[in-house]
Amino acid sequence: MKFIFTCCFLMLGYALKAQYYPSIASYFFNGTTSQGVKIKTNIPFSHGLGMPLVMIKGYNYNTGEVIAIDIVWYVYNGAFTRHSATAYGSAAPEIRLSNENGKIIIHLSNNVYYQRFYVSAFAQGKSENSTHFTGWTVASEPVNGTSTVLVSYKQHLAGTLNMPGNSIWTSTGNVGIGTANPQAKLAVNGNILAKEVKVKTDISVPDYVFESDYELPSLAEIEAYVKQHKHLPEIPSAADIQRDGLDLAAMNLLLLKKVEELTLHLIEKENKIQAIHEELIQLKSELTNRK
Asked: Would you call 244 exposed, middle or buried from its count of C-beta atoms within 10 A (0-12, 13-18, 19+)?
């Protein structure tokens, strides 16, 4: 009985070990590659064979980055599918999978000075065997295969992410930069530098000012309002802005409305001036004819 138990234990240990393949291959180069780095596996490019997890860990000396990348894929009907990568170090090179001579290769596109890493894998339940995870080699070579795909990185974070500079990404989706208590989807306690900012809003653009039925406030009404309130109608006061902040989208549309109203007043004044000018010309003409 003891002999049977020992054999079963050893067989179980071997089976468990066969699922994880540590240090299948390693690589280092004391220089800078020019064609990226290719990991040549012995996994056949075959429909339905293998759902491996390949782990690459190492060091990019020149950039001071930790290499920690996990890659998964599946081959279905002659194509890579359900492929993705996760980087939990600081290095995230472009990754491609390809079929070269019936075997799967993994290509890292970056060319880094003094790079070194090792490769491990886990596989179980899709006809994998240990021969698929031996004899792997690594070389600086370009991709020369077929069915090549660019692997996308995917990262799903749960909970709260604390970042340097008193910054945070909360579990509710609010991001604070320079503040650990963001009250909006993005809160920045500091300056923002951007080439372009687009604000999409549900506020209607005030082109209705140019409709024939729009009641344009007279300049006398605006003058009376300004004398009483010390700011334009509809525009928040300095005290309001100091208390509530400034809504850029709403303010820009309000300013546009005021410009449109001012334009209508200018057009009205221009028409009046033109009418007066024509009357003067007429009067001058009449006076000249009387002489």
From this structure: exposed
Contact predicate 48/75, CB 8 Å: yes
What whole-number distance in Å separates Cα of residue 190 and Cα of residue 186? Answer: 12
* Spatial CA neighbour of 273 closest among 234, 281, 228, 184: 281
pLDDT given for residue 18 in this prediction = 56
Q: Residue 51's CB: how many other CB atoms inside 10 A?
A: 17
DSSP structural state of residue 212: T
- Give the SS3 label for residue 5: helix
Summary count for the chain: helices (H), strands (E)? 4, 14
| pLDDT tens digits, 60-98 | 999 999 999 999 999 999 999 999 999 999 999 999 999
| 233 pLDDT above the threshold of 60 | yes
Please state the pTM of the whole predicted model: 0.68
In this predicted structure, the answer to whether residue 201 has a pLDDT above a threshold of 90 is no
pLDDT at 12: 44
**Does residue 52 contact residue 73 with C-beta atoms inside 8 Å?**
yes
The structure tokens listed for 172 are 């509710």
Phi, psi of 176 (to 5 degrees): -115, 125
- The CA-atom distances, in angstroms, between 208 and each of 211, 214, 262 are 5, 7, 14
